[in-house]
Amino acid sequence: MADILLKVTDLEVKASDATIVDKVSFDLEKGRVLGLIGESGAGKSTIGLASLGHNRAGLQITGGRAELNGRDILQLSPRDTRDLRGVSVTYVAQSAAAAFNPAHRLIDQVIEATLWHKLMSRAKAIQRAKELFGLLGLPNPENFGDRYPHQASGGQLQRAMTAMALCPHPELIVFDEPTTALDVTTQIEVLAAIKHAIARTGTSALYISHDLAVVAQIADEILVLRNGRMVERGSVDDIFNSPQEDYTRRLVSMRQTEKQAGAETHDNLLSIVGIEAGYTPGVSVLQDVSLDLGRGETLAVVGESGSGKSTLARVVTGLLPASAGHLRFEGKGLPSELAARTPETLRNIQIINQIPDLALNPRQTVEAILSRPLAFYFGLKGSELKRRVAGLLDQIELPRTLNDRYPAELSGGQKQRICIARALAADPKLIICDEPTSALDPLVAEGILDLLMRLQKDIGTSYLFITHDLAIVRAIADTVAVMLDGKVVRYGRKAEVLAPPFDPYTGKLIASVPEMRPGWLDEVIARRTLPLING
Amino acid sequence: MRNLPPLTPMALIGLAGVAAFIVLAAFAPWLAPHPVSEVVGGVWDVPSADALLGTDNIGRDLFSRLVWGARVTFTIAALATAIAFLIGVSLGFYAAVRRGWVDQVLSRLNDLMMAIPTLIFALVVLAVLPKNMVVLVLVMATLEATRVFRVSRAIAADLVGLDYVEVARLRGESWRWIMVREILPNALSPLLAELGLRFAFAILFLSTLSFLGLGVQPPIADWGSLVKENKDGLLFGVFAALIPGAAIAVLVICVNLVVDWMLQKTTSLKGARRNG
Questions:
Q1: B67-235+243-266: which CATH topology?
Q2: Is this complex scored with an ipTM above 0.85?
């Protein structure tokens, strides 16, 4: 092997009671990109930070070496570590919006570390930053740096942060989930910009992500991690074409399921007619939204952040009364105000939230959480109640021994299953799913989706499914509505909505979803008539 | 309470001080060498075996009066704090849960109450109404309740926006259920810390009122009245007034140490551990 830039050997990181990273070894050649992939708790960020000679509070690097150009950066003095960071190794964080100081102009922050380390004069640094802005496809590279953080979008900030990382001519950049917080259409722009910039500057990179499809576009090699251990390592083609481990195989084969849509039903459970709604009087977030949901079917509402899809869910639940239009449920009018709805209606519409941590009362046990709707709606007591709670746990495929646990003692997937069981306990006709899988790891999310689909088949529940992820839409929807800026831009049966000819926005949205194969991004860039890097 | 932080030396000092105070208050009849109003010697005698801390302005045993005073101080401060929390927490939660005009009316009324200086309010009310324990406790409770209202409304307003409370609202639960079952258990830790603080303030406020002659009336005495009775001695170089004064200071500091210790962990509303 020729020029090895970073060589990590038997790295071991421990918290007080657990091993976070367990004997991980890899090396990275100059000019190459290594993707670190794994679910939460896999230790990928911890490894990324160790490459900067840093460990988070509460963690300790207890063994192993991390050599950069043959020098062990874990043994450096604080002064030498400081001379390493921001010079040889730089970092791009997940949320650039939180990483920039809102009180200073972007240009000053982009060149700050470079000036501090006296790597170049101020004029030269500014010149370099402007070149990088252009390279990363930011608008008006000459003047972009004069903006304050609030004057740039999330995707622009992420690119500005990449410029900050590239500014001092580093040898290695650590990207820690740089596109995870972005919308898909923004993600593809940032991804293309990062790929272009690191290829052009010949910088090596560690690219950390939980999304294999994203990593596949940008990395030369992939290291799969799970629970702090290495699962598999190989070139991107090897990982995709001949994965050795079962876990890798499952990751690669994800997102392949597709629900077969049945015949169109005219038995509408829920009708949304001309709804307008907003949070401040006079400002409508939703504009003239009309949708129908058939009995026993799934209506997927897709859109990016700010499209009004969650607001629509709040209108249907009654938490946010509509200012115009009306709702019909089971052929009868559905009052817009929560207080005006009958207990029977409330029982029939249940909700599953995005973040199960916030949706479960931390001071109630699983049994208390599941018992309440049963007691409240059906007046169940004693052994009958216990039997029903046990039945619900069976239905969501969790062991009955979880009865006495508090939410903090459950995993993310288990918590979301409890939320599903709580909704099921009411025996509802409609369940509103507000991004129920977007806070979960991919494989866990798949399990949740499978469960929801099985329940629909078994008991015929209808879902109003809010999501930003088109892969999920394929897996679950019968009918699809695409939302943009509070309006429905495309609506119909799934087969029609997801097939050409597309309206411009839906086309862009579909083209932006990373596909689970290497080379997808290159194809998209090549296919575009306009240059991708246009700002 | 699960999840209390580990004990620190300061917390131990505080806990010891508070425990000693409660023991004094509970066992006053057995711990005090003399009945509370018995004259055992001359005016402002120096400490002796019979009167451990000397005698007061009319020759009563200061140590005995201090022990009995602990009981009076504790009873009144604890009662006032308890009633203040009952009123403040229920109204604060109610305002946060109902929101809208209910919240506006309650909050503005509360602002009105808080705009009146507490001491002046207490002076006026206690000067007009009969000077007995019930009135004293109620006046203190009312004034404390305004502060408790603010804190509990703020805590509850944060919790009301959380998904599990919304789920309960969507289920059709009454506001009583939401207040008692969904919000209260999750507000307990910060409220407990607030309880400690308000108790310390109640002790100080009671001492102030008694010092001004509006609090506990003779012949019984709390620590504030002991300072008042003996303050003239200071002119003659007698330090009898400083002893109950120091006792008040030590007690309030101890309560604060305990609260500081509890507060270390109570700000997190979520469970302690996360796995997955």
A1: MetI-like fold (1.10.3720)
A2: no
